[in-house]
Structures are given as C-alpha cells and as structure tokens.
Amino acid sequence: MSAAGDGSGRIVEIRGLSKSFGELEVLSGIDVTVEAGEVVCVIGPSGSGKSTLLRCVNMLEVPTAGSVHVSGVELTHRDVDIDAARRMIGMVFQQFNLFGHLSVMDNVTIAQRRVLRRSKSEAERVARENLAKVGVAEKASSYPPQLSGGQQQRVAIARALSMNPEVMLFDEPTSALDPELVGDVLGAMRQLAEEGMTMLVVTHEMQFAREVADRVLFMDEGVLVEQGPPSQVIADPHHERTRTFLARVLNPTHSGE
Amino acid sequence: MVGMNDPATVTEPRGTGLPGSARFSPRRRRQISQAVQYTLFVAVALTLVLVADWERVQRGFFDGTSAASMFPELITVAMKNTVIFTITGYVFGFALGLVVALMRLSSAVPNRIVALVFIEVFRGLPALLVFILIGFGLPIAFPGFSLPFGIYGTVALALGLVAAAYLAETFRAGIQAVPRGQMEAARSLGMSYSRAMVTIVVPQAIRIVIPPLTNELILLFKDSSLVFALGLTAATTELTKLGRDVSIEFATSTPLLLAGATYLVITVPLGYAVRRLEARQAKERR
Fold it and tell me: pTM value?
C-alpha cells in the first residue's frame, strides 16, 4: 500500500475526487485534507454533494476518479483491504442505523468482538466507557426502538468510538432529530472535539460549525467553493454563492434577497 | 349492501324515518338484513342435517372399531414419522434456502443464475415428482450410492429441495426489507460483506419473515404425505399412509378422518405458538 502523507499529521487526504452516478456528476475534482485533531465542517445546500464526499472517504461510495488516503493508506487502491482500512474510520449516520435486533450493549460490542477480536469483558469495558462519555450509560440493556432519537444517535457515536478510530465522520447527525434533542448530540460531539478527535462533519448546524470547527468547507453543485476558518467562511464569505446560501440558512424567514 | 346499512350515508329529510312512515330507519334496515342472513344460514344447516344419511355417515366417518385399531401406531409410529420427515426436510430446506437466497442477491452473475434456475425448477416441479426423482432417479444415476439414514435421508433431501425453493424467495424478500443503512453501518465498522450479512442483516430478515416461514412449515407437514410414492414399511409409515391402509382394511373413511385430525393437532398449536412468539417480540422491542 502506498504511504502518501505519512507522518505529516495528515489523517485524511482527498485528491482530485470525482463521483458520477451515471450521467450525473455529483462531485468534481475535490481536494481536501484534514490534519490530526482538526474539526472540519462541510456545509452547503442539499444536493451539493457533501454527503457523497463523506461517504467516499470510507468507500461506501466508490469514487469515479481521484484518490483518498486515510492515515497514509490509499483506500482507492484496488488491492486495499477495505475492511481493515474502515476500522480506522468511525462513521455516524443521519438515520443512526443502530442494529435493531441487538441491545445497546451488543450494538457497541459486536464489531469490537467480531472485528477487533476483543474479549467479551474487554469489549464491554470499552463500551461502558464510551456510553458513559456520551451520557447513555444507563441504557446499556435497552433495545434501540425503546430509545429517543437523541439517545440512539449518541449510542451510534459510542459504537463508532469503541473501535478507536483515527477519524470520525458525521453525516448530518442531527438532521433526523426533534429540535429539543439536537443539543445532546451536539454536546457529545463538542466534547469529542475538545478531546482532540479528528472529525469531518457534514452539518446544517451553523452555530456548531462556528463554535467548534477549525475549518469550514462550503460546497455547491459538486465543487468545493471556498474553505477557511469559520470566522471567514461563515462570518465574511468571499463567494457570492456562499453568501446567498448563508443568508438563506441564517435568516430563513427572509427570502434571501 | 354494506353501504346501505351505513347510518352515515342516510341524509333523508326529517320525517321519513319516523314510525308510521312507509320507509324503515337505517337501524331497522340493518336488523332486517341481519335477520335474513341468520335465517338463511340456519336453513342451509338444517337442510344438510335433515337430508344427510346419518347411519351411513356414522359408519363412514365415526366408526369406533377401525379408529381403535389405529392406536397406538397413529401416535407412536405415524405421527412420529410425519414429524421427523417434516422437521428434517425443513431444517435442510431452511439452510439451503438461505444459501440460495444469498446467491440470488450476490454480485457475482454465475451465483445469481444458479440460484434463479434452482428456484424456478424446484418451485415449478410438482413435489411428488421431486420425491420420485430423488427416490428412484438418484440410485439410477449414481449406482452404489445411497443417502444416509435410508428413507429418512431421501425424504429430508426431497422435502428440503421443495422447501428450499420457496424459502429462498421468502428469505430474499426479508433481506431486501432490512434497511440498507444496516449493511452500511456494519461495513463502516470494518465487517466484511459476509460477516455483516450473517450477524446483522439475516437475523433481522428472519424476524420480518416469520409468518411466511411458518406457512412453509405447515405446507411441508402436508407435503410429507407424498412420501407414499417411495413405498413405506410398517416402521416408516406416516399419517396419510396409515389412514389409507386402515381405511381399506375396514372399508370405512374413519381412519382417514382421524389421520387428518392428527395433522390439525400438530399445525393448529404450531400456528398459535408462532403468533404468541410474534406478539412477544413486538412487545419486547417497542
């Protein structure tokens, strides 16, 4: 396996990434790097390709062109052990995707045991630690349908964390939640960021992006329009498209004119 | 007819539904309609009871001597063998059906073709023909080869093949009903496709298809009677065969009726148990 970006503190390195679904090009020529410990938020209108970009990072979508490296491993290489590579990458989904037939504890331990070959007691210790960290320790024996959306999403975060990933990907983690439950999930993510986790977050929560992100990327129609610290991209965007988008998001009652 | 009885559809001007009026009120009309239905039902039942020749019915279907002669073989041999034939066939069909379903959903084209051909062939062939092909065809094609456990092995294989074709389609539907996000979440945790399938997707798929899985088991209980085509001894006889044999011996249909009732003794509690299981699962997980 090639080892581009090794040792430089670069966790994610995306080069010239393009993705088409048939005739439709949803990503064209994206270059993004994420440094160790950095929190990067991706914003943009729906259909801009930001979720697809995230899903290309762990190969849930296979890019049409370009390369993706995570911790020096080229995931787009055709001989890569994709299962081994994905262990370095935690992913949190919009719809939580907890395993409905398993208890919370089993949800968090099953991959530790089957993939990392941890013992039952070791896996449960790690699970308890992470469930406590995101504030759902007392739900260990519940089943996912018995939990609120906010609790399910925090279990999903604990499940991903228990694999000790190098980077965490969040795909609109609060978009499916009732408004009063969003805060708990964002709180858990903020704590994770403060502990130095490397994070790539697709979100519509501008407040979170402004306060937590080290860098914000604005995407529109499959291209990376601009990027920079939140104070620049959100507070003082250079591009007209970014300004139009932010005007709509930040003042939804105005027409954006 | 139903619509006419619906009070909501009646918006007649006031007065027409009052007593003394030529028309009946909706409530009255409903009562009349029900009375007519019950009268008809009772009339048909009475006619059948009166017209039937009860002496012959008793001799044909409720003959004590022939019924008594079936015990204890009815339970100790026939029912036992029917259950063994069905359960072994179902277990084999369950495993094979799952494999065929996974092949059917595979990304490899040859797998999909093999699975499709298997399903079409064994779903389309009469079960009786499959029994004959396995029972008499295999020994001809492979001289010297014999399935283990004699007739039991043959029946398990034949019934299993028939069941597998149906079960494969049932499993496929169940697997496709599990949300795609389950597979994606499992893969993102580093599980391989097959591990994710086995530990995450298939267990949830099976829960979804428990009702059709039960149906198939009950169908198989009945299909197990086709084993008569292979020739059965006194030790390997099953319910339908025993019923027929004793029927001929005593020249009455009573043994057949008794054998039929024994199928119900198995399948009715089975259906009840599965309904209970479903209800408990639904409650546990809400």
Answer: 0.83
